[in-house]
Fold:
Amino acid sequence: MTFRLGLTGSIGMGKSTTAKLFAEAGCPVWDADAAVHRLYGVGGAAVAPMQAAFPDTVHDGAVSRDALKAILAETPEALAQIERIVHPLVAQDRAQFLRGTDADIVVLDIPLLYETRGEKHMNAVVVVTAPAEIQRARVLERGTMTEAQLDAILAKQMPDSEKRALADYVITTDTVEHARAQVQDILATIRAGQHA
Structure:
């Protein structure tokens, strides 16, 4: 039986880096954001239903994230309709990934795992964390958003302290070496439990 390890954490906490560390350690990683990119891309399963619901969002055969953002800025209630289209397709993508692996442990990288109650489908959950000042510095260094935009995103996400309290495991991403050691410890603990 494959052990499903959920990986989550707020923006700028080092989740992508931690996912890479799990992959380096031999765990197949399914990335929810990458799945959405596939679904929105040319030929993706979300393109036709999104075009039917929101014709202005499809450009050159793909769903435009900028067009989606514009719609959500004008009509925030459109989010529920978008989620009704996309969430089942993401779940199908995840199920296909799980069917295609026989690894003992797989990592499911889901940014809003707790917010969407996805933890119910996991055997355990890892939350990545970092001090708030490091988180803010990392996000702002990317140059892709303002402090106000970051604050708006953080306001929509479950606070880091709540995620840590719910987690089975917590990884502090202060350095890559420290994060790698914690990944190794978690995998050893899970494997020890599986063979106990």
Observations:
- Residues 34-100 form one domain.
- The chain has two domains: 1-28+105-196, 34-100.
- The CA atoms of residues 53 and 81 lie 8 Å apart.
- The mean pLDDT is 93.
